[in-house]
TrEMBL record:
Residues 246-266 are annotated as: Disordered. Residues 246-259 have a biased composition (Basic and acidic residues). This is Reverse transcriptase domain-containing protein. It comes from Uncinula necator (Grape powdery mildew).
Length: 285
C-alpha cells in the first residue's frame, strides 16, 4: 500500500517477518523507479527512512533488518515523522506527545513575551493568540494520536502533560492566580477543556472523512490484512475483526449527530455544533 501528500511518499507493507517486508519494499521501490523514469520524476534515496512496526517484547534480530538499494543502506529507526506526526515502532504515540508538549511550551513562551496580566494585548486578543497559534501548534494531528485503540480518550497521565501547557496559557491570558482551579479559568476564558476539545476534533474529522475514497481504501486494506493473517494463523471464520479507533469514533459521532438532530431544529444545528466545540482545530474562535 502506498500513500502520500505532494512530495512525501510512504510505502507500507506487512508480512510474517521484517525480512520479508524489506524484500517486498525493495520490489515496490523498483516499481517506483520505473514509474519515475517514465514520467521524468526523481526520488532522493538519501532521505529514505525505514521503520518496523511490532509490539514484540524485547529486542529481536528480525526487527533490525535493513534495506540495501544499490550503494545506499537504510537502517531501521525507532521513530519517524509522517506528515508532521511522529510515529514510533510500537505505535504508542509517546514521542509524538512529548513533541506536542515541547511545541506547546515553545509557543506559550513566545506568547509570554508579548502579553501579561498588567500589560500587552487585551484578554480577548490574548485568547485569540492562544486559540489560533498555541493550541493548534500543540495539538496538530491530535485527530489521529489523540485516540486510544478502543476509541477512548487519552489516559489522564498523558493528557495531564498537555493540560499543564493550557493551564499556563490560561493564567497568562486571564492573569489568574496559581491557586485558582483550572475549570474556573477555562470558563472565564471560554476555552474548552483539552479532553473535550480533542474529542470534538476527532468526531468532526471522523464525520467529514467517513465517505472519502481514501477511507474506503484504508478499510479495504485493513480487511485484507485481517483475512490474510486469519488464514495464516488458522483462526476460525467466525472471529470478527475488532473495530479500529477511528471506526469507534465515527460511530460515536453519528450517534451524537442523530441526538442533535432530534433535539435541535435544523437551522440551529450549526450553532449548536460550534457551541459544543465541534469545529476545525485550526480555525479561529
Amino acid at each position: 500500500m502506498a500513500f502520500g501528500f505532494v512530495d512525501d511518499t510512504n510505502l507500507v507493507v506487512w508480512g510474517r517477518s521484517a525480512r520479508e517486508n524489506c524484500y517486498t519494499l525493495e520490489l515496490a521501490h523498483g516499481k517506483c523507479l520505473a514509474w519515475a523514469k517514465r514520467y521524468g520524476a526523481e526520488f532522493a534515496p538519501e532521505k529514505y527512512q525505514l521503520i518496523h512496526f511490532s509490539r514484540k517484547r524485547g529486542s529481536s534480530e528480525d526487527l533490525k533488518e535493513k534495506i540495501v538499494l544499490e550503494d545506499i543502506t537504510i537502517n531501521p529507526r525507532s521513530e519517524i515523522k509522517v506528515l508532521g506526526v511522529l510515529v514510533d515502532s510500537r505505535l504508542r504515540w509517546g514521542p509524538q506527545l512529548a513533541n506536542a508538549v515541547q511545541k506547546g511550551e515553545v509557543a506559550i513562551n513566545a506568547l509570554s513575551r508579548i502579553t501579561s496580566s498588567i500589560w500587552g494585548p487585551s484578554v480577548r486578543s490574548s485568547r485569540l493568540l492562544y486559540t489560533a497559534i498555541v493550541r493548534p501548534t500543540m495539538l496538530y494531528g491530535s485527530q489521529v494520536w489523540g485516540i486510544r485503540p478502543n476509541g477512548g480518550s487519552l489516559v489522564k497521565s498523558l493528557l495531564g502533560k498537555l493540560e499543564k501547557v493550557q493551564n499556563k496559557s490560561l493564567r497568562r491570558i486571564t492573569g489568574g492566580y496559581k491557586r485558582i482551579p483550572r475549570a474556573i479559568l477555562e470558563r472565564e476564558a471560554e476555552i474548552l477543556p483539552l479532553d473535550l476539545y480533542i474529542q470534538a476534533g476527532i468526531f468532526r474529522y471522523g464525520a467529514i472523512t467517513e465517505h472519502k475514497p481514501v477511507t474506503t481504501e484504508i478499510l479495504r486494506h485493513i480487511n485484507l490484512m485481517w483475512d490474510l493473517f486469519s488464514r495464516s494463523y488458522k483462526r476460525r471464520a467466525t472471529v470478527t475483526r475488532k473495530a479500529t479507533a477511528m471506526e469507534h469514533n465515527r460511530h460515536e459521532a453519528r450517534s451524537k449527530m442523530e441526538e442533535l438532530n432530534t433535539t435541535v431544529r435544523p437551522r440551529n444545528l450549526i450553532s449548536q455544533l460550534q457551541g459544543s466545540g465541534i469545529r476545525n482545530q485550526d480555525s479561529r474562535p
